[in-house]
Amino acid sequence: MIHTIRLRLIRNAWYFHYALRFVLKVVCGNFVVALLTPKCGVRNKVKF
Questions:
Q1: What is the DSSP secondary structure assignment for residue 43, as one 8-state letter?
Q2: pLDDT score recorded for residue 31
Q3: How confident is the model at residue 36 (pLDDT cuts 50, 70, 90)?
């Protein structure tokens, strides 16, 4: 019984770890994409 509870806690900790990593990748990835995309105001001012 104790082993089952401990294994469940360890499994939940790993799920939390992977979920947290996924959220950080998504948030940081969106931030990097936002930094790399040109601003609309700058693009509209350039005349060809």
A1: H
A2: 72
A3: low
- HSE, CB side, 13 Å, CA atoms: give it for residue 27: 6
- DSSP-derived secondary structure for 1-40: -HHHHHHHHHHHHHHHHHHHHHHHHHHHHHHHHHHHSPPH
CA atoms of 41 and 39, how far apart (whole Å): 6
Digit-coded pLDDT (tens) for 13-25: 989 988 888 888 8
Structural domain boundaries enclosing 15: 2-45
Does residue 37 have a pLDDT over 80? no
Number of domains in the chain: 1
Q: Give the whole-angstrom CA distance, residue 9 versus residue 26.
A: 26
